Amino acid sequence: MILNFVIYSLEGIFVFKLSCVFSVNMKIEKLFDAAPILNDPIYRSCLILASESRSPEIYGSRVMKDNLFIGTGRNRAVVHRYFKLDREIVQGYSNHAEVEAVLDARREGWDVRGSDVYSAGYFRNEKQLFLHNLYTCSVCIPYLERLGIKNIYIPTPERWVKRPIEEAKEEAKWFKGDSHRRRLQVSMKGFKVDDFKGLVNVLNEISL
Ligand SMILES: [Zn+2]
Fold this sequence. Notes:
The protein is α+β, with helices and mostly antiparallel strands. 42% of the residues lie in helices and 20% in strands. Zinc ion (ZN) is lined by residues 96, 98, 137, 139-140.
């Protein structure tokens, strides 16, 4: 009797888990159709990096130079009541993904001048991929400019869009101040991902 109950429960869990995976994959399949950029390995790796962040807005970045990936980063706390991470640049309590990726490359001894930065994000509370066609971070511009970054790549649903640093600088001016609300305003609608962790699991499988 007890054994039957256990078997029944296990089956219940098994069936439940299976149906969850199924529904996640169905939604993700539609998402891949709506946002072909999800097929791009750089975009996928940026989202995987972002998934390690804990902020309401999470970002992952990669730096590329001469067709080589030379640095990765995600937005993260660098100064805390109990710890301080060793960083060449400290933007505040936390560093943005772009700057972390560039610092990562510099730590590895790369000359980052002339390199390109890719950055992708997700709004955790709104459960929405941040797909857009403007560069939206006025906070990072002075650092990226000073470090000699050439282009910033922005993810639209179809593909990455290149912005020379001067253009990115102009666009980012509008995002000073109430930047979270403004980023949400320019975020393209229809790219909701309720289960971001599920998406990242799928992306990790594809990456292999
Ligand atoms: Zn930034």
